[in-house]
Design goal:
alpha/beta, Rossmann fold, Dihydrodipicolinate Reductase, domain 2, nine-stranded mixed β-sheet, six-stranded parallel β-sheet
């Protein structure tokens, strides 16, 4: 194991990059050696905020030419993630890449193949996998407290308005992508992660009620899993309500609803829902997300030469589902079979 500090380059200096930087600074095995952005001024603001002693760039090529860089943290607008991820992988750099990592199946295949070909380690920022509620749910499911899950539902309801700092790129189809790619992918990934199952068909419907997005802002999709289980997800970007990330897992012997438990196996004398107090995904604020654990996980994978459960190869499947949902919407709700390959 190489005990030297790993050099980190943060590329993209928006809101989420500040949360990433805070987590990288806490890890004793890394050092931020570069911050870059389309705007040198925005990169400098991040450097000043964290009092970093590092290079500042406005060119991604300059980042890749810096021999001190071991890890590239890609956190710019959605439409540049794949191109930059491929370039970083081909230069031999490990990746932490924000979601969505791609905007199309061509990009999905190209990024997956680049990471496999070069052998770099990667984590795609489906950061809720490290949320304490998710950890509890995974443990309960592994203990079979609800029997065999036959229905899975996860929703991402987040009213993202023009007041959002990234609105200029987020609301357009060319740079934001779609409701599923912008935010709903978190729900799709949570569904896969908790069900431990793969989707084999999906159909979806949508609307654009407020008309402020260049794509349909509100989507509902239904699924069939490989096991025969069924599921549903929705993303509501037009909603006027507090952020809500709903999780329902229904099994043959019980149910898990967010942090509530119904299980006669676990609690044979229960007369009402049992509640497990924990930190839940009840905020869209990046400061609320467990980036410390995500960053530490990637560093451990690099140092121990292990693959992440949340690497590009795994995230390929989450993005494939999101793109299949978008395809179903474009075709009037037609059922799309997966995999798309």
């Amino acid at each position: 194991m190489d005990n030297r500090k790993l050099g980190v380059a943060i590329h993209g200096a928006g809101q989420v990059a500040y949360a990433h930087a805070a987590s990288w600074k806490k890890n004793q095995n890394t050092k931020i050696v570069s911050v870059s952005s389309r705007s040198r001024e925005s990169a400098q603001r991040l450097v000043d905020e964290f009092e970093l002693d590092c290079a500042v760039h406005d060119s991604f090529a300059d980042v890749l030419n810096d021999e001190r860089v071991d890890i590239v943290n890609i956190s710019g607008p959605n439409h540049v993630h794949a191109e930059q991820g491929i370039a970083a992988a081909e230069s031999g750099r490990h990746l932490l890449i924000e979601k969505p990592m791609v905007m199309s199946m061509d990009e999905n295949r190209a990024l997956r193949d680049a990471v496999v070909r070069t052998g770099v380690k990667s984590v795609v920022s489906f950061v809720l996998r490290w949320n304490p509620l998710f950890e509890n749910l995974k443990s309960l499911l592994a203990s079979n407290v609800i029997g065999d899950p036959f229905y899975v539902e996860v929703d991402y309801w987040h009213g993202i308005s023009p007041a959002y700092g990234g609105w200029d790129w987020a609301h357009t189809k060319a740079t934001g992508g779609s409701a599923m790619l912008l935010g709903g992918c978190h729900a799709v990934d949570a569904m896969r992660w908790l069900a431990d199952d793969e989707v084999v068909e999906v159909s979806a419907l949508s609307n654009n009620w407020k008309g402020v997005y260049q794509y349909d802002a509100n989507v509902v999709a239904i699924f069939r899993f490989q096991s025969g289980a069924i599921g549903k997800t929705s993303v509501l970007l037009d909603c006027e309500m507090p952020y809500s990330f709903n999780i329902d897992l229904i099994g043959t012997d019980g149910a898990l609803r967010d942090n509530r438990i119904w299980s006669k196996k676990l609690l044979p004398a229960q007369t009402g829902w049992a509640t497990a107090p924990t930190v839940t995904p009840d905020s869209g604020a990046v400061e609320h997300h467990p980036f410390d654990a995500e960053v530490n996980h990637l560093v451990d994978c690099i140092r121990n030469d292990q693959e992440s459960h949340c690497n590009v190869a795994d995230a390929y499947r989450t993005h494939e589902i999101c793109l299949a949902i978008d395809c179903s919407i474009e075709e009037g709700g037609r059922t799309i079979k997966l995999p798309l390959d």
